[in-house]
Amino acid sequence: MDLQAKAKHIRELILTALAEAGSGHTGGSLDLVDIFTVLYFNHLRHDPKHPDWEGRDRVVLSIGHTAPVLYATLAAAGYFPEDEMLTLRKLGSRLQGHPSYEFRLPGLETSSGSLGQGLGVALGMALAAKMDGTSVGSGTVNRVFCIMGDGEQQEGSVWESAMAAAHHKLDNLCAIIDRNRLQIDGGTEKVMAIDPLRDKWAAFGWHTIEIDGHDFSQIKMALEMADNEKGKPTVIIADTIMGKGVKSIENNNQWHGKVPTKEQLKDFLHELHQ
Amino acid sequence: MNYINKGNKPTKTGFGEGVLAAAQQDSRVVGLGADITNSVGMNFFAEAFPDRFFSMGIAEQDCVATAAGLALSGKIPVFSTYGVFAAHRANDQIRISVCYNNVHVVIGGAHAGVSVGPDGATHQALEDMATMRVLPNMTVISPCDATQAKIATEKAILECKGPVYVRFGRETVPDFTAKNQEFEIGKAQLMREGNDITIVATGHEVWEALEAAKILEQKNISARVINMHTIKPLDGDILMKAASETRMIFTVEEHQIIGGLGSAVAEYLSENHPIKVVRIGMKDRFGESGQASELMHKFGLDAEGIVNQVLREWA
Q1: What is the pLDDT of residues B57-78, one digit of tens each?
Q2: N or C: which end of chain B has fewer CB within 10 A?
């Protein structure tokens, strides 16, 4: 599969949907595209035609505000029609501003949007998968992936879950941190320093990996290393560039919660294809 | 109707027996512990099913999020801790991960009310019904004695579909309802007939209300007593009947008069059958240390206190 082409297409879907919606979170959605592309098109055991398949791996998007990257990836993978992306944030849409389990979007595993809860939810799923063992689905223990933000690391509840996952030796749990170093008020290290982040996770008993979150081969390798780690959960700290893919908005925290105008959309899509 | 005290027993024990009974019938039931396993009634389950009980440490926010994840994966998680921590510390997790997902997680809220006693205000749950009741999809149950706590908990686990909060106390209190009682979540029980006033009580206050009704009878006031064991969904039918057949409604709860049973009853009746509703409970203040009986007396929550407040209004 041409992962580059997939990633480009997912970025198009995100930008188009956000411009149509008129509100939403562009920066973080774009910078997670490469990770989501590898996860859904090269790694997860899942079946878009049977979203409730018992043997599936699960993805928990703890940073609910980056919902567009999840929706666009699910649509590109065939969970629902891509046209539905244009209903993002509109009345009656299954594509709520933040992920809503209530609306039963195929492929969506949980509601999220209040930071610091996703890792605990993922940990519960991983515990359940361990209890079920190989009795369901694919013949191996189901895996759970939790996508967190770097600003989210400031939530105390993240560390409650970090402690518990290591205590219960959940090697079928993999957390991925979108380390774009930006949050709404500015740089993470200025707002509330989270470094040395890798040391913190290691001290909590996790297997830690640090990668370039835009390098497909590094993403693939990290996910495989996580699969093979025994007795410990894995955290992948992925260095990313907020807004990745559109040069004019990269690394600019103004684009955390801003969307392109219809005019800007044309330029951005043009830029994507260069 | 005469209710006989079969012997004092904490409602906490009833909750624990209910969890055990449900777990014996359904292998999907799992338990989460936040360090205080014995004092929140989870010890019976933890001892009988060690492989299905997870110690999560003193981390209530994680416990609730983890419970939601377990439920999303087909388990029936039961998480019990003191009501103050469940309903307040982990409130956001209950709101988003449990209620918004509308998953079947059963939360036990122990140490309800001032009858917790010497531990004092920090550990006396007096606002939990308010913060649980207001959440969409949530069912709130407050059984009146140990026997009922067992039945209610078993049903909450095996029959309910969404989130449930079951509230219970620490102190040994009269155990007076029948093992074979008819109990349906959302359907209140008429405990005593009466035609002057109605006392709607919940939790430990049901026994106190029955005792108060006996004293009032000697003063020629006929008091109906209702056990509102489910705060949400509220049984409107029994309230409509009481409002049309008696002349004043009193609500009694070991909880703030703001936001709990009294509020729920007043909200319902003001819309459907306006009548004077007098709320007996904690009057916008914290509890304090003391023996359970001393505190119940100080705050006017024992039978004598209920009688005095009825007489003041009825005169």
Answers
A1: 999 999 999 999 999 999 999 9
A2: C
Number of domains in chain B: 2
What is the structure's pLDDT at B1?
59
- How open is the CA angle A236-A239-A243, to the nearest 5 degrees? 125
Residues in B closer than 8 angstroms to A114, CB to CB, are: 92, 95-96
- Give the pLDDT mean for B292-303: 98
Query: For chain A, first and last CA: distance in Å?
Result: 21
Look at residue B209 in the predicted model and tell me its pLDDT: 98
Q: In angstroms, rounded to a whole number, what is the distance separating the alpha carbons of residues A38 and B222?
A: 73
* Containing structural domain, residue B296: 189-314
* Contact list, B92 vs chain A (CB under 8 Å): 114, 117
CA distances (Å), origin A207, targets A73, A162, A173: 27, 11, 11
In angstroms, the CA B180 to CA A221 distance is 61
**The pLDDT of residue A205 is above 80:** yes
Buried b / exposed e across B29-66, counting CB within 10 Å, b at 16+? bbbbbbebbebbbbbbbbeebeebbbebeebbbbbbbb
Q: Out of A175-179, B38-42, B242-246, which region has the weakest mean confidence (pLDDT)?
A: B38-42
Same domain? B124 vs B226: no
Q: Are residues B147 and B204 in the same domain?
A: no
pLDDT in tens, B26-47: 999 999 999 999 999 999 999 9
Q: Are A111 and B57 in contact (CB < 8 Å)?
A: no
Distance CA A11, CA B75 (A): 36
Chain A residue with the nearest C-alpha to that of B57: A164
- Domain membership flag for residue B183: no
Among residues of chain A, what percentage have pLDDT more than 70?
A: 99
pLDDT digits (tens, 9 = 90+) for A231-241: 999 999 999 99
- Tell me if residue B195 falls in helix, strand or coil: coil
CATH number of the domain that residue B238 is part of: 3.40.50.920
Asked whether residue B27 falls in the same domain as residue B50, the answer is yes
Percent of chain B with pLDDT over 70: 100
Residue A251, number of CB atoms within 10 A of its CB? 15
pTM of the model: 0.97
Please check whether residue B245 lies inside any domain of the structure: yes
How many interface pairs between A and B have CB atoms less than 8 angstroms apart? 107
Q: Do A101 and B75 touch (CB under 8 A)?
A: no
d(CA B301, CA B295): 8
Same domain for B253 and B296, yes or no, is yes
| Mean pLDDT on A67-76 | 98
- Chain A residues within 8 A of B69 when measuring between CB atoms: 60, 110, 120-128
Q: Are residues B96 and B212 in the same domain?
A: no
Residue B237 lies in a domain: yes
Q: What Rg value do the Cα atoms of chain A yield, rounded?
A: 17
The predicted pLDDT at position A253 comes to: 86
Residues B147 and B51 in one domain: yes
